[in-house]
Amino acid sequence: MPPDAFWEFERAGWERAAASYDECWTDTRLFVEPLLDAARVGAGSRLLDLACGPGYVSEAAAARGADPVGLDVAAAMVEEARRRCPGLTFVIGDAERLPFTEESFDAVTMNFGILHLSHPEVAVAEARRVLVPGGRFAFTAWVEEDNAAAEIVDGAVAAHALPVELPEGPPFYRFADVDECRRALAEGGFDADSLRSEKVVATWRVPSAALLYEAEIRAGVRTGAVVRAQPADRLDAIRKAIFQGVQAYADGGEFALPIAARVTAARAPGG
């Protein structure tokens, strides 16, 4: 399946975001350990870390004694992961067209990457193809409920942004729904009865009320593109709304934002 406009939009967006990701999106780190637990990654596990970004999952997996390979579609992300984790392996590649043979890995993970794919069901089937019989695939996806960061940003954009035409992609919260997760995994060849899905709530501590806005401007892709396209008056209104929203979560010298994601896993048949 050849790349499409949404695929290229996402790839270019993460190329742009790579230099700022590690400073802006520390929230994704909070779900790495639950993700690895769901995939049952331990010492000796051969792990494929899809949409690896700066290498958070690979880094944590290696600390468990696993043997990870990180893959990302954005070359700049792969460079950043190699810089952060010089002893680990990272490659440029597409989750929908994996450059690995069948039964190459004991586990496959994707930390929020499934939200950014043109054809996530293809990536699910590819994960199944490269897993050994009985291997596990686990992924995370944001949910709206109990997620202050999403509520603040989505509310500010809905209230103040002018419409912006972007390449059409799958619904952002598609995999917040357990039934949708089950359907996609079953169609991808996983054992539907093995599915385990849990909403995990964490606290994202940010150093300033401005960070959430800056993160979207500097390292956001879908929402970031909408925000960056706004005229100055609309942009200022969005900035102020996000700033005020974050201030409501002041906690000492920081801001404690409750955030939530769904961690979903299933087993490949056999084994």
Task: Please sum up the structure shown.
With 271 residues, the protein is an alpha/beta fold. The protein is built from ten helices and eight strands.
Q: Give helix and strand order, one letter per element, not per position.
A: HHEHEHEEHEHHEHHHEE
CATH topology: Rossmann fold
CA radius of gyration: 18 Å
Distance between the termini: 30 Å
**Would you state the CATH class?**
Alpha Beta
**Overall pLDDT confidence:** 97
Instruction: Estimate the helix proportion, in percent.
Output: 40-55%
What would you note in describing this structure?
The protein is α/β, with parallel strands linked by helices and 271 residues long. It has one domain (5-267): Rossmann fold. The protein has 10 helices and 8 strands. Strands 1, 2, 3, 4, 5, 6, 7 and 8 form an 8-stranded mixed beta sheet that branches. Strand 1 (46-50), helix 3 and strand 2 (67-72) form a beta-alpha-beta unit. Helix 1 (5-24) runs parallel beside helix 4, helix 6 packs antiparallel against helix 10 (232-247) and helix 8 packs across helix 9. The chain is globular and about 55 Å long. The model has no long low-confidence stretch (mean pLDDT 97).
What's the topology here?
Layout: H1 5-24, H2 32-38, E1 46-50, H3 56-63, E2 67-72, H4 75-84, E3 89-92, E4 105-111, H5 120-130, E5 131-142, H6 148-160, H7 178-187, E6 191-206, H8 211-219, H9 222-228, H10 232-247, E7 250-251, E8 254-267
Parallel strand pairs: 1-2, 1-4, 2-3, 4-5
Antiparallel strand pairs: 5-8, 6-8, 7-8
